[in-house]
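Imidazole glycerol phosphate synthase subunit HisH
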Amino acid sequence: MQSVALIDYGSGNLRSAEKALVRAAAGTSQIVVTSDPEIVAAADRVVLPGVGAFAACMKALSERPGLIEAMTEAVQVKGRPFLGVCVGMQLLATRGLEFGETPGLGWIPGDVRRVEPNDPAAKIPHMGWNTLIDPHGPAPIAGVGEAPMYFTHSFAFFPDDPADVAAYVDHGGKFPAAVAKGHVAGVQFHPEKSQSAGLALLARFLEWRP
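Predicted structure tokens:
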């Protein structure tokens, strides 16, 4: 049975992400909530959750000794499939521009910056159900189709290369809702809060063979 390391660095959506992954796995994968570098480095897949501010999440991740190095070994060296959720996706960026400038993991070049709607009726934070635009790229994201997903955020990840955007969303203007580069993928929305469509996305990630 494959092992899935769900990274524990104090994120607020950790337990809901764990429950959703367990449901999506349906006994086919072992979901391990962990900050142990040895377990992470040996995992078959890695999931990074996250809610809150970019700088605080990056600080919390960095304060777990050896954790970023273990994630890098599993994902960047061994090529294990990776999924980032909400701020877990944003941390893939080169830097976050929330409360100053904070370096990210740099796995997908780009910036995380505040969403600035063109429509004054579009409130920030962007919160609630919204439909993805042009979901494509890897199977976990391409298979979403037009099912609505649940969002709650004020900042978004803007990759330097538009080819790294795997889906968009419109909230007073279009911006990235999912990213993908090789075996690394991330979603701004919360699959764990997106009912059957979100569970289906997680199930496809667990079966993904990049």
